[in-house]
What does this fold into?
Amino acid sequence: MDTDMNRISDLNIYLTRMQRSILDKMFFMDKVFEPFKYVLDFGCANGELIKAMKRMFPDYEYAGYDISREMIEAARQNVPDSKFYDDWDRIDIPFEDSLINISSTIHEVYSYCDEKDIDVFWDRVFGSGFKYVTIRDMSYAQADDIPVRQEQLRAIRNSSCAEWLESFEQVWGSVETQRQLVHFLLKYKYTQNWEREVHENYFPFFTEELIKRIPDSYIPVYKDVFTLPYTSWQIRKDFGFELKDHTHIKLILERKD
It folds into this structure.
């Protein structure tokens, strides 16, 4: 993993951004019905999601995993009565009786890990025997990857955000498809951590490729593709057009018994 690129220049802004979507990130809690005892939050950061879930759903046991020791120390202080780990091999909850939640993490794995580490990630997710696997992340369908809507691109080029689009194109190339445009629109507001954000690949694969990754040992019991409401509102406010492209996916996968 490229730790230098992964460094967050303004941690407070990064964490505040994450907190805005806390309710949406626990989407699965009223949609899973087979009994389980533990929730493992993969990429738990400072533990805010676990803290919120504990208040609303106190009957579960919670644990968090993150590769950042800084985040894990913050999580232990934030939620002292839960378990947090920065070493996967030290996690001591029974995976077969657990739900693993992977929220806004997959794109970071692909942005900062090599192919070997990516394979390890998927093996941990699907090869550990979790009762449920829940995923929420940015996603774009190959079927929707059309030529860029020129009127939307012009609106951005004629706005105060034009310099950020230029910076984006220096990294990702000239915007020629709608997928590229949406990629920019998901990150243009995060200028405080721009050097990190602009290099992250928010769409490392198409939605169809993610679905193909689901092994036969799991059944998809819930799927939702959607446009993040806050993002739509911000784009309408800044550029005057409605973003109708689906930007995110939610999945709940249940292990076959």
About this structure: The CA atoms of residues 155 and 240 lie 8 Å apart. The two ends are 35 Å apart (CA to CA). Residues 115-127 form the longest helix (13 residues).
